[in-house]
Amino acid sequence: MIKRRSTPAKTAVLELLSKSGKAMSQDAIERSMQGGIDRATIYRVLNRFCEDGELHRIIAEDGKQYFALCNKCDGGDKVKHHFHFRCQACQTMECLPTAVQFAIPVGYHVENVNCVLSGFCQDCAKIKSDLNN
Questions:
Q1: Which of 6, 11, 23, 28 could serve as 68's disulfide partner, Cβ 3.0–4.6 Å?
Q2: How many domains, the chain?
Q3: DSSP string of 10-26, one letter each residue
Q4: For 104-119, what is each residue's pLDDT tens digit?
């Protein structure tokens, strides 16, 4: 892997994603930066982090891209192939901690899995349940 220099933009994006604990879209990252970093710089930073394996890209069913830290993506006790969950109420996207189990035909080799489940997260499901009672 190429050693890239650290910049304030890279540091800010990594800190934001780390603090959020969830995947974020480029728009959400840009809003959180409150104009401190321009759209093009954020785009370049996110793509470089994906190339370097620090982030992974999640493409939701509507085509919107989300980015998450690769805390659980490669090797050892980390989950490489995992599902993602998008809440229909609060629009959060998060990595689920369980590995995907799947079977593929002989001769195929899977390099990437992009599975997005949608519904209501634990918090929104509880609110919805409380409203219905």
A1: 23
A2: 1
A3: HHHHHHHHHHH-SBEEH
A4: 899 998 877 778 889 9
With a CB cutoff of 8 Å and minimum separation 6, the contacts of 99 are: 79, 80, 81, 82
> Do the domain assignments include residue 3?
no
The residue range of the domain holding 47 is 8-132
Predicted confidence (pLDDT) at residue 2 exceeds the cutoff of 70: no
Q: What is the value of pTM for the model shown?
A: 0.74
In a domain, 103, yes or no: yes
CATH at residue 26: 1.10.10.10
| Assigned domain for 116 exists | yes
At 36, is the secondary structure helix, strand, or coil?
coil
**pLDDT over 80 (residue 73):** no
